[in-house]
């Protein structure tokens, strides 16, 4: 998505060889017009999938996910992150190792907010090693819901996430694909 690539070039900050900071339009300050355009693009990409619900993980997935859900006219639910919790039967739970924070969190979704037989679209801000999406897949599976695909704002193709998800037959659509960071610059993968 050209608008997003331009914004990454303009405002993204490369940290080392693996991390991109986009905290002035996605991860801290949020650009609503850009989020709306991204939500419309995800809705267009998945328009034939008869989606019942959009699922993401707090907090950075929420902005793109809510605009996707708005464009699809369906509810959005975000998994909550918990370091430790007293497990109850009311929640679905999965473990997610965070690449950026180097810690494992539980992600939890209240059983009331994802139903058996529903068709679910996953949304997240970044795809790195695929752990966040994998955790959402586990929750959907536990709920006996069907995941139609994952919409990713920024994919880093040099990390393992896509391979992990494709192995499981999951459709992955990314709005920007980065193949490397070189000398502090972003190199995009060919479309
Ligand atoms: P994964 O679970 O695919 O390994 O990593 C995805 C999660 O880690 C995303 O939800 C995002 O919060 C975080 N993440 C991974 N790579 C980056 C990055 O380069 N920049 C930022 N800001 N977050 C990232």
Provide a short characterization of the protein structure.
By secondary structure, this protein is α/β, with parallel strands linked by helices. It has helices at residues 2-11, 32-45, 62-72, 131-142, 161-167; strands at residues 13-15, 19-21, 53-57, 76-82, 91-98, 103-110, 119-127, 146-156, 172-182, 185-188. The chain has one domain: 3-Layer(aba) Sandwich (Rossmann fold), CATH 3.40.50.2020.
CATH class category name: Alpha Beta
Strand content: 35-45%
CATH topology: Rossmann fold
The overall pLDDT average reads 95
Radius of gyration: 16 Å
Number of strands: 10
Query: What composes the largest sheet?
Result: 8 strands, mixed
Order of helices and strands: HEEHEHEEEEHEHEE
Number of helices: 5
Strand order of the largest sheet: 5-6-4-3-7-8-9-10
| Whole-number tally of structural domains | 1
Helix proportion: 25-40%
Report the principal-axis shape.
Answer: globular
Bound molecules: guanosine-5'-monophosphate
The assigned structural class equals: alpha/beta
Show unreliable segments.
none
InterPro entries: PRTase-like (IPR029057), PRTase_dom (IPR000836), Pur/Pyrimidine_PRTase (IPR050118), Xanthine_PRibTrfase (IPR010079)
Subcellular location: Cytoplasm
Keywords: Cytoplasm, Glycosyltransferase, Purine salvage, Transferase
Binding site for 5-phospho-alpha-D-ribose 1-diphosphate: 128-132
Characterization of the model:
The protein is α/β, with parallel strands linked by helices and 191 residues long. It has a single domain (2-80, 112-188), classed as Rossmann fold (3-Layer(aba) Sandwich), CATH 3.40.50. It has 5 helices and 10 strands, in the order H-E-E-H-E-H-E-E-E-E-H-E-H-E-E. An 8-stranded mixed β-sheet has the order 5-6-4-3-7-8-9-10, with helices on both faces. A two-stranded antiparallel sheet has the order 1-2. Helix 2 packs across helix 3 (62-72). The termini are close together. The model has no long low-confidence stretch (mean pLDDT 95). It binds guanosine-5'-monophosphate. Residues 19-22, 27, 60, 98-100, 124-132, 161 line the site of guanosine-5'-monophosphate (5GP). GO terms for molecular function: xanthine phosphoribosyltransferase activity.
């Amino acid at each position: 998505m050209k608008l997003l690539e331009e914004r990454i070039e303009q405002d993204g900050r490369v940290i080392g060889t693996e991390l991109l900071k986009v905290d002035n339009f996605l991860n801290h300050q949020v650009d609503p017009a850009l989020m709306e355009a991204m939500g419309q693009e995800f809705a267009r990409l998945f328009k034939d999938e008869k989606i019942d619900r959009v699922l993401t993980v707090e907090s950075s997935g929420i902005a793109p996910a809510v605009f996707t859900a708005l464009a699809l006219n369906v509810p959005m639910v975000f998994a909550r992150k918990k370091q430790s919790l007293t497990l109850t039967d009311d929640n679905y739970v999965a473990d997610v190792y965070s690449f950026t924070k180097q810690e494992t969190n539980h992600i939890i979704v209240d059983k009331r907010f994802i139903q058996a037989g529903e068709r679910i679209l996953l949304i997240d801000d970044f795809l790195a090693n695929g752990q966040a999406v994998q955790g959402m897949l586990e929750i959907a599976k536990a709920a006996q819901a069907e995941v139609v695909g994952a919409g990713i704002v920024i994919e880093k193709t040099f990390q393992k996430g896509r391979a992990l998800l494709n192995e499981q037959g999951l459709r992955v659509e990314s709005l920007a694909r980065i193949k490397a960071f070189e000398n502090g610059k972003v190199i995009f993968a060919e479309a």
